[in-house]
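Re: export button greyed out
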Amino acid sequence: MSSLIPVPQKSEFNGNAFVFSRDGSGAVKYDYVKDETIPVEGYEIKAADGHLVLKSSDEAGRFYGEVTLGALDALTGGAPGEFYISDAPAFGYRGYMLDVSRYFFDVETVLKHIDYMALLKLNTLHLHLTDDQGWRVEIKKYPRLTSVGAYRRRTLMRFREHGGYYTQEDLKKIVAYAHSRHISVVPEIDFPGHFSAAIAAYPELGCYGEHVKVAETFGIKYDVACIGKESTVAFMKDVLEELFTVFTDEYYHLGGDEVMCDRWNICPECRKQKEKLGCESWSEVQAYVLKELVSFLAEHGKKAVIWNESAPSPGSDKSVIWQYWQGGLDENKLTKEVNAGRRVIMSPSVPYYLDLPYSVNSAFAIINYKPVGDNITEKGNVLGVEFPLWTELVPTAKQADKKLFPRLIVGAEAAWRGAPEKDAVSRAEKYYPLLKRLGAKPGKPLCVKRGLSFIADRLWWERRRLYWGVLGNLVGDLKARHAAKRRLRQPDSHIM
Ligand SMILES: [Zn+2]
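Workaround output, generated via the alternate export path:
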């Protein structure tokens, strides 16, 4: 009983024998009672005197009650003994993000990850669908986004093509599968940075119509969307318009992070726009463009989410939800922002990024992290937590599983309870058989690797940092400067 993850808010068992009965399909048989006094997504289960009763006020609560029964069945061999559980989540937003742009994961893998989420009572799947290294969603009005933008010739030192994308039908299937497990799906179209796959497909989306490749290296790229042209914003609206029929949930993620301004500095259209708006900084211009997209989303009943960035933020509009990852914003500034009315989703890279090595982000670090800081007075503005799996160096589903477990199990307890119990790591291992039933291949349940594996882990991390921060981008920087000089020499250029 105490092996359940997330551990229920309240559970008691008295030692009397109780064995589950089954229906025709082999599932645990219970009587259901609708009880309006039970909180949203919450449930109560009582197993006593030969009767099993599950109560909830909504379908999600009933679903989580069934998940608990299924887990108890597996963990106790169908004989849990008499018990009483009263349970409800601490956070309404319990997220997991899969980056399908850096590496493409097929529909079956995404469905499997949804199964993992359902077992762990996570309720929001964030799909990072577009980035410099690949555009993964079919947009009928712009077919080159996938025919060109979904493929790169090679990746770092791997000299073979990588690519793939989801048709809108694929994504509808994913969304329907998620909904049947009470999981919402948040699509992310990263804009105006992390956008070079789109520019590779449609060069006019960039500042000078220059031909760029879908990125073959990782890191922050110089080719970003031109924010001086009306047509770029129109493009984004067209993309979102098509997505509205696929992603029917409330939240839409617009990225907004890590935008290099080098191109804008030397783009006549961008400079004209900055002057026209009377903006002093590029982040103000970015905020203006973002505002237009946020209003467009609002007109369609959607709420915008962006990655946080340091102040002055492109998301100064308080209706925009921030996904906190850091990006120059320390927790004191975050606290002020939250107390002033900003709603946030907590995904601090340390300790919540699941691709980082265990020597950097251990499962214990997740246990020790408080998603709602002590100085936050407006606690309701912390909507919840999300655990991102970036995939720059996670090319296969098998490697993904090793990154996810046990950390996602412990993270799910943080999401459900506000903070995991101290023994969550040892209980996580007991969930491995349940995950294996879903097709998972979890790694050794090590939380902090030691010795040689610790060193290997560190080297892996340094390699990622090298790729991210130096090699490919040095070249990108040189190219950007060269393009700027060339542009400045042109007689019709209206820039200094
Ligand atoms: Zn421009």
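Confidence is low (pLDDT under 50) at residues 491-496. The button fix ships in the next patch.
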